[in-house]
Structure formats: structure tokens, C-alpha cells
Amino acid sequence: MLRKLLPLALLLAFGSAAADEAEIKKSLESKLGAKVESVTKAGYLGLYEVYSDGNIFYTDEKMTAILINGQLIDAKTMKNVTEERMRKLTAIKFSDLPLDRAIKQVRGDGKRVLATFEDPNCGYCKRLAKDILKLENVTVYTFLYPILSEDSVRKSKQIWCSADRAKAWNDWMVEGKAPAGKDDCDTTAVTRNQEFGRRLNISGTPTMFFADGERVPGAMPLARIEQRLGQSK
């Protein structure tokens, strides 16, 4: 039900009363028909931050209204509070990633680590692939995550079946040389990546994970990637 409500981006009136986070959580689960992961004080205007179904929304103590699809901005610092909280709430343990199902590229000492979920037909992913080639002393794990089309699935399987997966990936993403190999090897890794990504609510590509587990959806400038790699050692 919550997924149907989110696109509305409206204030929904309820008018019930709640005294604390636990009661708000219980009441919202009943009203929305969805599991609420957490309820915490937002620190602004008496609002409570609610995390559910991979999304953040806000309500007041009595749940007289719910703000859906709103971005909470700190007026003093102009910091996007919602965005910052989402990064923390969607963080994972890097060690939990199934790295054996990723294309591994090591440059230099390989001490810094970065994991990406990418679709071979994603334009932003192709831009990221070019930037990644400029990184030094890094190990990059690229998870083939075809979500855009059937052609994406076919190309992902062809790349996975290549003798040199990293070369096949870069040839296509950077040089535009389409994979020409077969796609009839054991490609369960691609299917399992799709299932794993859905469990993590990865809905777009590229999506990056740094060593500290922070998730960054979408494109990121090379300078910012370098900065984050330095911060997450």
C-alpha cells in the first residue's frame, strides 16, 4: 500500500494520537499496511522520521498529517537532512556483498575498495566506467545488474561468459565494442545479482557502495569518488 501512496507526495490527515516512537510505529503499520523499520525524532518542527519500504517520510506526534516524498532541508546549513539520513539507513556491511559474483579489477596496491551495481546499457554507468579507469590503488567490484532491458540481460551474460570479464566490460562500456561471445555459460551470478539488488532496493544504476557500507545511488563526480575512497579507508 505504501508504494501506491508515495507518488502522491501529499499530506494525508489521520487525526489519531500517539505518545512515543513505538506507538507511532505500531499505528502507522496498521494504517499504511506496510512494515515500518524505524521511527526517530527528526529534530525539526517536532517531526518524526519514519523509515519504511526503503523510503523516508515524516509525521507529527499525533499523526495528524504525513509528509510523503518531502525533502527535509536544514535552513541554516542548507544540508539535505533526508538525503544524509537515507545514506545511513541504506548502508550495508561491505563484507556482506557477494564479491565472488562481481567483476574484479585491481589497480596499484588495491587497498581502497569500491563496489558498483551497473547495467551495461546505462549511460551514467558508461561515464562512471571511464572515471573508474582513472582511479589508482583501488579494487573495484562491478556487479552486473541488468534492469533496463532484455538486451541488458543478454549483454551481461555475454560479458560474464567472457574469458576476460574485466576486458569485455571495459571494451563495451569505455570503447563501445559490443561483446561478441556466447551467453550460454553458467550465468546464475547475473540472476542472483538481480535478486540481491532487489532485496537491497537498488532501483537505479549505477549504485555504489564504499568500504564503510555507505550507498550512493546515481552518478558521482570523479573528485567526489576519490574523496569518499579516502574517507572510507
Please describe what this structure looks like.
The protein has 233 residues and is of the alpha+beta class. The chain has two domains: 2-89, no CATH class; 94-231, Glutaredoxin (3-Layer(aba) Sandwich), CATH 3.40.30.10. It has helices spanning 2-5, 21-32, 81-89, 123-132, 150-160, 165-173, 188-199, 222-231; strands at residues 11-13, 36-41, 48-52, 55-59, 65-67, 103-107, 112-118, 138-144, 207-210, 215-217. A five-stranded antiparallel β-sheet has the order 1-5-4-3-2. It has a five-stranded mixed β-sheet with strand order 6-8-7-9-10, with helices on both faces. The chain is elongated, with a radius of gyration of 21 Å. The chain starts with a helix and ends with a helix.
Keywords:
33% helix, 8 helices, alpha+beta, five-stranded antiparallel sheet, 233 residues
Entry summary:
With 233 residues, the protein is an alpha+beta fold.
